[in-house]
Task: structure prediction
Amino acid sequence: MAKDLFTRLLPARPFHWVKGRIFYGWWMVILGSLVNSIGAGILVHGFTIFFLPLKNEFQASSAAISLLYAAARLEGGFEGPLVGYLITKFGPRTMMFAGIMMTGGGLLLASTMRDYWTFFFVFVFIVYLGFNTGFYHPVSMVVNNWFIRRRGVAFSLISATAGLGGMVMAPLLSIIIATYGWRAGMVTGGLMILGINLPATFPIRRSPEVMGVYPDDEAPRDPLHRGLDPQRPDVRDEDFSVKEAIRTSAFWMLTAGISLRLFVTVALITHFVPILVWRGMSQTTGAYLVSLYALGTIFATLTMGWFGDRRSKALICSLGLVPMILVVSAMTLSPTTWVLYLYPIGLAVAMGTAAQNWALIGDFFGRRHYATVRGLMGVSYGTTSFLSPIYAGVVYDRTGSYTFVLISLSVILLITVCLFAKLRPPPSKRRSAAPPGRLNS
Result:
């Protein structure tokens, strides 16, 4: 009932005037990019800007502040299967609307909290519950439905613009926090999410079929063989059921690779500024290096997206982690300051592989159950994302150094490189197939 009422309030074919000039799927990419760039700029790239102010405000340890972000990631992992099911059932637009309302309103509420545990409750169970529900998951499902052959570029664009959001929001939040305090920073973030992201959800459409077009704006050349591309056998418009997906070795290897990659990158992003301050850099300069990192992710993500539609995405995911191994190793061995400026660059290249991770899920397992399959993987990568920043915080609290953290993370990265290098698509279920059913909104 609520879904039908919500649908009737929206125009049936928004932006109809652009039909014939631009494929509507690219509007989905633009709107999804806008939503993710604001959200990620504040809650992913921007969290490290809040790290030390929150630590001082609540007189908390590094592990306690890390727990905020870690618990949010764990929550996102365990709610992943349910969120995937709800997105499939009610549609991405409805879930985006609900999630954005919770995230923006939660930030406004969090700015009024006076003690650590009430802040923890609001931040994890309102702000991040909304973020995990209404941002990356539904946007990824929309992009996966609208593109097949151009999936790598489409995913790269929504990921790259998340870096653009970080490039803008990191210095902005740093200035606001330095001038008016962290509470003003959260109020600013909440108002931006409500004022910009909410209107962006209205034109979202679940799939090209509901508008009478095909993915990529290309009719299938051979309906009897549309499941296979002879030049790119890892890219198929072939839907695996959830049970079929989890029975493949590709599912588990891809889950492991994404989980280990996130174990490293979440720890490094959460402790980005604290690591630089530990090495003698000022907090303000560290915030500007966050912007450099965000800028780097834009170029890295777009470049890997272009190659991902032409070469093996799994190989790109493997090679893209090698620079971070070298940089992290250099930071543990060299006392010089110049190596710190390589840190955001190496991390940006590693994060540039993220879009290809999510595109691989669609390439391997199809469109129909994408949200649920990704949600199931989220249990694993949500757990590793929970553990890694706490691990880094506990080690630093006990040793006063990030040296052991960096060494251990470089070893995990090396294992991840090997996993992606060995990753292969699951065997095709069929050599011929009837056209898949409609994906209704």
